[in-house]
Write a structure and sequence with these properties.
Layout (H helix, E strand, L loop, with lengths): L1 H4 L17 E3 L5 H17 L1 H5 L3 E4 L4 E5 L2 E5 L2 H9 L7 E4 L8 H9 L6 E3 L2 H15 L3 H17 L4
Helix pairs in contact: 2-6
Length: 165
Amino acid sequence: MITAFGCGIQEDFDITRLRYHKIITMSDADVDGSHIRILLLTFLYRFMRPLIEGGYVYAAQPPLYKITRGGEELYAYSDAELEQITGKGGRGKANVQRYKGLGEMNAEQLWETTMNPANRTLVQITLEDAFAADEIFSTLMGEKPELRREYIERNAANFTQDLDI
């Protein structure tokens, strides 16, 4: 990434050498993908912060579900959106496919939902987003096990609700 971006890292960072003006991270829509996004944002925040400060960093939002009903294909990006789509009824029974990752989509589906500039949803990463990612990364992966334990105790109920099995 450092070589591809062209602008160096840390004290060698030079924004004028940046080769791209839109850096898009793309990871799975599930919990594992969120973890990968946190790792990427933490790296950029710690070593290439001006990219985030300058508004160059975005996150692509791939769908979590594909809903097929009566020849029509729709995509849902969250559980709430899935419930909204399937709750509308309509022609025939809905067939729901949950994407466990980007690799479960064929190239055409990935293009249409996540990569095509005409259809895709991008979220611009702010300094606050990156700071939050860095903070959670430091808590969970840092050298203070008591912080990790406190975090797990505070959030244990959420872990069982969001299991991705």
